[in-house]
Design a protein that fits this description.
about 400 residues; alpha/beta; Rossmann fold; five-stranded parallel beta sheet; two-stranded antiparallel ribbon; 13 strands
Length: about 400
């Protein structure tokens, strides 16, 4: 679906609204963690991921640094940039477009981590580090296709770097480190094998994608892809305004996401939902809260609603282990049922009126793509109970 490195527009992608919401959520709030996309071949998983970079705002980097260091934050700088910053040196800067860094098939540990030229260090008395994939991925999107086929030790290395935000390399008592903050996205076909549960749990969000059954939508997919292949530049121009509008919305959401609040009744809703489903640990609760905040910010809101929590729960729970691995991850039906029960508990405990209002992932995306950004004033807690699936 790509021609001469010209990316298919994110906003032109048909369907898969939950997947697009998940990608936008981790783009607005990368601290949510990684995203796993599971689905059969030919459903456009890699296309929509590469299209995400198209709508992300450009970043300012230190112009002569191989690690894309943030020129304004010494805590996110490599040692060389930090030393220059501490001396009061004016760091050269430039704005660059975020990119998708793809992990090559058959990548080795040295290709991922980078290497230290021991011989040069011993001869010249200097650190000679050759950057790897994690260096290029800093402040970008790291994309791993067929992540389930990646050797476990490489997955461990990448997830550790993603969790810490730093890449550490040590060879023969010589060490080096650099920032490695990236948006991690992995795709897989479940028919080709699964990921061990310990690693699956560390990928914060998961979305299952399937081929679209609606013949009208399938026709539109065919039509758009033919048009893109015949004239990609004109096709992209047609979606330029929508792409720019989405980029502005993402910038706005990133600016307000830390101001988004979750009131106590909604925190209780999250906790009760996870308790009812017997998910392991507290990570799922936190992921739901962070994702709900990102969804609210994407709609220009500074407070989370129950609708955000419901959507976030589907992203955050569908792959979670339960009761120490004795139970399979919850199904969509189980999450829906637990959400309804937890909502009733909130209503009873906090004596809050629950308003029945349906909201699908498509409605979220339609609002994000076309609705104006209208900042909302903080208001009283308002719960919205949804009674149907968004898929």
């Amino acid at each position: 679906m790509e021609q001469d490195n010209i990316v298919y527009p994110f906003v032109a992608f048909v369907g898969q609204d939950l997947l697009k919401l998940a990608l936008l959520a981790i783009a607005v709030n990368p601290s949510i963690g990684g995203l796993l996309i599971r689905g059969e071949k030919g459903t456009g998983k890699s296309v929509v991921v590469r299209g995400l970079a198209d709508v992300l705002p450009p970043i300012e980097v230190v112009a002569d640094c191989p690690f894309n260091c943030d020129p304004h934050n010494p805590l996110l700088m490599c040692s060389r940039c930090r030393e220059r910053y501490s001396r009061g040196e004016k760091l050269p800067t430039k704005k660059v477009k975020m990119k998708v860094v793809t992990l090559p098939i058959g990548a080795t540990e040295d290709m991922v981590l980078g290497t230290i030229d021991i011989e040069k260090v011993l001869k010249e008395g200097e650190r000679a580090f050759r950057p790897g994939v994690l260096a290029r991925a800093n402040r970008n999107i790291l994309y791993i296709d067929e992540i389930n086929l990646l050797p476990d030790h490489l997955v461990d290395i990448i997830l550790d770097a993603a969790a810490m935000g730093w890449n550490y390399i040590e060879r023969e008592n010589i060490s080096f480190s650099h920032p490695a903050r990236f948006i991690l996205v992995g795709t897989m076909n479940p028919e080709e094998g699964d990921i061990r549960p310990q690693l699956l749990d560390r990928l914060s969000l998961c979305v299952d994608v399937r081929g679209i059954n609606d013949p009208e939508l399938r026709m539109e997919i065919i039509r758009r892809n033919i048009e893109f292949q015949q004239d990609p530049l004109s096709f992209r121009e047609r979606y330029k305004e929508r792409t720019e509008n989405l980029q502005k919305r993402i910038i706005y959401a990133k600016n307000i996401v830390n101001e988004v609040t979750i009131d106590s009744p909604l925190l209780f809703l999250i906790a009760e939902l996870c308790r009812m489903l017997s998910v392991d640990g507290h990570r799922p609760d936190i992921v739901i809260a962070q994702t709900a905040k990102a969804l609210a910010a994407l709609e220009g809101r500074r407070e989370v609603r129950s609708a955000d929590i419901r959507i976030a729960a589907y992203m955050a729970l569908v792959h979670r282990t339960r009761k120490g691995g004795l139970l399979e991850p919850p199904t969509l039906e189980e999450i829906e049922e637990a959400f309804r029960k937890a909502l009733k508990e909130v209503k009873s405990k906090f004596k809050i009126k629950v308003e029945a209002k349906h909201k699908t992932a498509k409605e979220y995306m339609d609002n994000i793509l076309s609705g104006p950004i209208i900042p909302e004033e903080k208001s009283k807690v308002k719960l919205e109970g949804e009674q149907r699936f968004f898929r």
